[in-house]
Write a structure and sequence with these properties.
single chain, two-stranded antiparallel ribbon, 12% strand, binds magnesium ion, six-stranded parallel β-sheet
Length: 267
């Protein structure tokens, strides 16, 4: 089931991951095409850059529900599917898009604050999101291969490292994290991923990004990094491919299963 939004075709939440039976990717071809497009001489993987929501944690269901309910309380409509398309955008950016569409004028600073407070209150009342299936196993494989792991998230939670350490022990380090507090522009601007590279003084061809959101894919692609899209939400595959994803997988579990094969190509 699909519907149109801003020219995007969005799959209904009900038909989530219906495309699993027909994967549309080939690692060798995708990597060769990436190298050729950027006129690099090759790839030499030194780090993996991971987004968090919808990649490491199955948290987008909660975010989309909280956004949708908060907007309703404040007299506007933002359905859950649309919330996925805004993932990674600042709260005020999302609120302004909806305000202009629904009411034809901008929201005031007070309104933005009120709506965001409602959203946060609803979000915090929901049960804590589970880690994404396959994420821990993938992170462990990456670490064992001697590849650095860098977190690049638009999230601004204060106890982020604590939460990460709880579910993914001994994987993440404070000095290898880019969060909402570190960046000026945020996704879809390339700044967060460029900052991620700079943490270890890396070139774009020395890293790969794992992203689930269209704006996150755009950010990573514009930073010049090979971008693996994992479509863990209700968005149509084409939306992620249109933003420039180099390869698309249906889940973190599938990426985990293929990791060793990928590593042989790019090490
Ligand atoms: Mg995400």
């Amino acid at each position: 089931m699909y519907f149109e939004f801003l020219g995007f075709r969005i799959r209904s939440l009900k038909t989530q991951n219906a495309f699993n039976t027909n994967p549309m990717y080939n690692w060798k071809e995708s990597i060769s095409a990436y190298i050729a497009r950027h006129t690099y001489t090759g790839m030499q993987l030194k780090a993996m850059l991971f987004d968090m929501d919808g990649v490491l944690f199955d948290s987008m269901k909660n975010h989309s529900l909280a956004w949708s309910e908060a907007m309703k309380i404040h007299g506007m409509t933002l359905n859950r599917e649309e919330a996925y398309l805004h993932e990674g955008r600042t709260a005020s950016g999302t609120i302004q898009i909806v305000s202009h569409r629904e009411r034809g004028y901008a929201a005031t600073e007070e309104e933005i604050q009120a709506i965001y407070e409602t959203k946060s209150r609803l979000f915090n009342a929901l049960p804590e999101a589970e880690p994404m299936k396959g994420a821990l196993e993938l992170l462990q494989q990456v670490k064992e291969a001697g590849i650095s792991i860098i977190l690049v998230t638009g999230s601004g939670q204060h106890s982020l490292l604590e939460k990460l350490n709880h579910y993914f022990p001994n994987i993440f380090r404070q000095e290898l994290m880019v969060t909402a507090y570190d960046v000026k522009h945020g996704k879809p601007d390339p700044e967060p991923y460029l900052m991620g590279l700079s943490k270890l003084d890396l070139k774009p061809y020395e890293a790969m990004v794992v992203e689930n959101a269209p704006l996150g894919v755009r950010s990573a692609v514009d930073a010049g990094i090979f971008t693996i899209a994992v479509n863990t939400g209700p968005i149509a595959d084409e939306v992620l491919m249109k933003e420039g994803a180099n390869i698309l997988l249906p889940s973190m579990e599938s990426l985990e299963k293929e990791w060793s094969q990928v590593y042989q190509i790019v090490k």
